[in-house]
Sequence to fold (321 residues):
Amino acid sequence: IKNIAVLTSGGDAPGMNAAIRAVVRAGIYHGLNVFGVKRGYDGLVKGDIVPMDAKSVANIIQRGGTILKTARSEEFKTYEGRKQAYENIKRFGIDALVVIGGDGTFTGASKFIEEFDVPIIGLPGTIDNDLAGTDFTIGYDTAINTVVDAVDKIRDTAESHDRLFVIEVMGRDSGLIAIRSGISTGAEAVLIPELEVDYNAIMKRLDQTRKNKSSRIIIVAEGDDEGGLVVADKIKENFPHYDVRVSILGHIQRGGKPTCMDRVLASRLGVAAVEGLLAGRKGEMAGLICGDVQFTPFGKAIKHIDKINTNLTRIVEILSL
Ligand code: ATP
Fold:
């Protein structure tokens, strides 16, 4: 392997820049030429590929988003599109790829390897933390800290006005953003797609806490069957005396400076991806499990596993008395 390329794909996540920097610098450290592909697989299909050097990734470790930009490419989902992508990487002399993204990105990478035998290593870049093969994904820590910061602020107004706030957070069909931010903001309830919503239990808990609390926070994961607005309507129906407000945090959760933990994770995994390729690895995602870098085949990394630990859901219940 002499020439490698790096791309970011799917939804952006804080720490992607730190990962790009790590791939570029580790590649150079090991004597490789490194290219950057613009807008994920779209840039691969269109040949939007630029050489990167150590300086091109200077001063980006602290920046959110991705300097390479990201996109969703419909063309790459077709064989013709992937063939075009293969022709482009051959044209640039690229021998291997590092792709930073989520499950869709790894599904596309698997097909590309199968059809054209290009070595690819993936890095988990998504705020949702919904991949197997890593305890945490790049961007998750930053996103939950953003949520915690926002919920703390909402708690101030909820407390001052004796209000109940239903706060919808991101995570698609994963409740991992909801559960950890719920625990750390002292939410009275957390509704996640992995668990059936037990309204009776929630109402009971709200009832029990009514006397000694003036504010209440209910965190709802966006992938929950019932989004924040529906949950708020149900609460209004059952507790008409509550002053209920809804806040949908939205895209602020995807932006911002990556936390120290995300920068370190991205840096470690970026180096691991390059060294994995040099060691002959392909079709695997580099992740961190119990503090150690481990490689997991794409097929296993994208298999939706239930990373919600029931110990976490119990904590909410025990501590929201
Ligand atoms: P996030 O978790 O942030 O959404 P993701 O990687 O899952 O990230 P997707 O938009 O699902 O994001 O996938 C990124 C890109 O991967 C798609 O735009 C597409 O080009 C490619 N891709 C996804 N699924 C497939 C597939 N079945 N076959 C080929 N390519 C795919």
In short: Residues 140-161 form the longest helix (22 residues).
